């Protein structure tokens, strides 16, 4: 495998620091820079809890991409920042691998168009855990037979976006096979606003936020006299790393932007 030069944005965050540990283990992955607002000018190895790597922290994505020779940007930041970073990467001919969630449909469309114009490959995946990708695909299959479905996602209480990117992607995949249906009683009335959850094409999404959780989702289908529940749990952020590594390996050969790891795992 050829060397791949990587920049990580959000490198001292919960996911970013896990990504650095993954990069450290692979000889063919070479960390050339990090972006965050707190550690400008410091080496990764100088920051407590981060691996023993020499790459420097930069304050701004454009400064960083000018200073280093990067092939791939891994972005694990926040919705607004991640969108700007992905755009900057594409404009600089650097391939984005984006785990950051909370992008709008318009932003995804714009980034896809930009990648096409620039002929730069990229991957935006709301969930890099292999099991979660399969859970979404199994839900897509089940929805063909069970149009009654509710999605319950549960995350740690530091998460800023709701519903989760995974829940939105699951609903989009279900929509591809489910016969459109407004679920529940037609006269249903919420006595407390939000009691029935968020509505996506007539199905409901419920978001739970509690300390101690990592990332968990149940997709529960029902028909007369039966119930099918498809469930995935990430107990540790290491669960996302094999998917990120796989995406980094694949993205160097792409010339378009892909939304969802299933396109590389299963197509
Ligand atoms: N696709 C997937 O498989 C997964 C995706 N995620 C997503 O990844 C993202 C990050 O999650 P998580 O690690 O838990 O969040 P954290 O809050 O732990 O980390 C986010 C990091 O981004 C940094 N950051 C904020 N603003 C900037 C900026 N302007 N430039 C550079 N860095 C910045 C933060 O720094 P500071 O602390 O200084 O603000 C922080 O270090 C979220 O969108 C989450 O939904 C999470 C898990 C799996
Ligand atoms: O913020 C998180 O933690 C996670 N975010 C992603 C999402 O919004 O779906 C992926 C995973 O669920 C963890």
Automatic annotation (TrEMBL):
According to the entry, every stretch annotated as the Dihydrodipicolinate reductase C-terminal domain falls at 131-264
Top enzyme class: oxidoreductase
**Which locations, inside or outside the cell, does it occupy?**
Cytoplasm
Domain (Dihydrodipicolinate reductase N-terminal) spans 4-128
> What Pfam families does this protein's entry cite?
DapB_C, DapB_N
Catalytic activities = (S)-2,3,4,5-tetrahydrodipicolinate + NADP(+) + H2O = (2S,4S)-4-hydroxy-2,3,4,5-tetrahydrodipicolinate + NADPH + H(+); (S)-2,3,4,5-tetrahydrodipicolinate + NAD(+) + H2O = (2S,4S)-4-hydroxy-2,3,4,5-tetrahydrodipicolinate + NADH + H(+)
Q: Which domain of life is it from?
A: Bacteria
Q: Does the keyword Cytoplasm apply?
A: yes
Name the pathway it acts in: Amino-acid biosynthesis; L-lysine biosynthesis via DAP pathway; (S)-tetrahydrodipicolinate from L-aspartate: step 4/4
Q: Which InterPro entries match?
A: DapB_C, DapB_N, DapB_N_CS, DHDPR_bac, NAD(P)-bd_dom_sf
Residues at the catalytic site: 155 (proton donor/acceptor), 159 (proton donor)
Keywords in alphabetical order: Amino-acid biosynthesis, Cytoplasm, Diaminopimelate biosynthesis, Lysine biosynthesis, NAD, NADP, Oxidoreductase
Q: What is its main location?
A: cytoplasm
State the oligomer form and interacting partners.
Homotetramer.
Family membership: Belongs to the DapB family.
Descriptive protein name: 4-hydroxy-tetrahydrodipicolinate reductase
Q: What is the lineage of its organism?
A: Bacteria, Bacillati, Bacillota, Bacilli, Bacillales
């Amino acid at each position: 495998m050829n060397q791949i030069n990587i920049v990580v944005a959000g490198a001292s965050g919960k996911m970013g620091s896990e990504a650095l540990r993954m990069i450290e283990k692979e000889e063919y992955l070479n960390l050339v820079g990090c972006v965050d607002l707190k550690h400008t000018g410091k080496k990764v190895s100088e920051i407590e809890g981060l691996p023993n790597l020499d790459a420097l922290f930069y304050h701004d994505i454009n400064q960083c991409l000018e200073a280093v020779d990067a092939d791939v940007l891994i972005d694990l930041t926040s919705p607004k920042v991640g969108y700007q970073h992905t755009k900057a990467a594409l404009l600089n001919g650097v391939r984005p691998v984006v785990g950051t969630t909370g992008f709008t449909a318009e932003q995804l469309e714009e980034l896809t168009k930009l990648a096409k114009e620039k002929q730069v490959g990229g991957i935006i995946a709301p969930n890099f855990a292999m099991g979660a990708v399969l859970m979404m695909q199994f839900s897509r299959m089940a929805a063909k037979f069970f149009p009654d479905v509710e999605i319950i996602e549960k995350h740690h209480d530091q998460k800023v976006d709701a519903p989760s990117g995974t829940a939105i992607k699951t609903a989009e995949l279900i929509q591809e096979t489910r016969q459109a249906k407004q679920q529940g009683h037609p006269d249903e009335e919420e006595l407390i606003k939000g009691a029935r959850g968020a509505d996506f094409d007539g199905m409901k999404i419920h978001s739970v936020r509690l300390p101690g959780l990592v990332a968990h989702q149940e997709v529960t289908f029902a028909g007369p006299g039966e119930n099918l529940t498809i469930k995935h749990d990430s107990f540790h952020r290491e669960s996302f790393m094999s998917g990120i590594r796989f995406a980094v390996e694949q993205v160097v050969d792409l010339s378009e932007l892909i939304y969802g790891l299933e396109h590389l795992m299963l197509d």
